[in-house]
Amino acid sequence: MSNPIHASNRLELEELHLAKDCLNQTIEILTSHETVRGFLPKPLPEGALQAITASARSAPTSSNLQAYSIIIVKNEQRKNRLATLSGNQNFIREAPVFLVFCADINRLKYVTAKQGYTFAAETLEMFLLSAVDASLALQNALVAAESLGLACVPVGSIRNDPKAVADELKLPEGVFAVAGLAIGFEREGVRRGVKPRLPEQLTVHDEIYSTEDRDQYLNEYDQTMISRKTYDGRRVSLAGEPEKHGVDYGWCEHTARRCTRPETIAVSASLRENLKQTLEELGFPIR
């Protein structure tokens, strides 16, 4: 794997040479994605937001149920409160627009009752369907925004306190904030170069799932992330456990520590720990 620190896209980073007919503006935008966590105090260009939401609404949706909703947040006070609820991340405050993508079965329940039927789709499948619908819409919005020269950062920490977020956004029963998307013009100096991903051999499988040479590729990726100092100052500490010495702190160690207990993924022990119970309380009975 190539390791230029400030590669502008994944093709350059991994020294991938696509056939000329397979390289276009869309591929260039997708492979150039970099999460940006710093925005200028500058509004979006006129018409940009509608172009972004139209693109989001054009995403695939299961059975055309369109089981999602998008909340547009531009009010400074509301953005501030959502930033606080989402791990106190300042880039949410800085971004001129913060979109919240929600799984939404409230509308489906309403339509079912309106047509004189009983809604009986309170299942894990329906939650997954609506969460996937929301996620596909978010990805379309991100690509659309980046195609307009804007920068974005998806925000999973909107799930840190689902009830408080639901109260802030006046979400009715059956609507759950899956992820946010901060959009704006990036501040100078916030880019660090496209981040290396796991080798293709680990995540893309030919016909059947394969674990062949898994350790080799994991070790290679670890060394790439260590050489880039990706986790310097970002080590996950494990409460009650002694610090390991002599262990290379790369992707494997960082990821393993985050997965030692569910709440570690959300940084704080109090966050997302009882998400299933919270989902049910918010109108997503899962059976």
Automatic annotation (TrEMBL):
UniProtKB keywords: Flavoprotein, FMN, Oxidoreductase
Q: Which residues form the Nitroreductase domain?
A: 32-184
The molecular function terms of the Gene Ontology recorded here are: oxidoreductase activity
Report the superkingdom from the record.
Bacteria
Tell me which CDD domains the record gives: NfsA-like
What is a single Pfam family found in this protein's UniProt entry?
Answer: Nitroreductase
Q: Which family does it belong to?
A: Belongs to the flavin oxidoreductase frp family.
Q: Which PANTHER family does the record match to this protein?
A: OXYGEN-INSENSITIVE NADPH NITROREDUCTASE
Q: What is this protein called?
A: NADPH-dependent oxidoreductase
Q: What is the lineage of its organism?
A: Bacteria, Bacillati, Bacillota, Bacilli, Bacillales
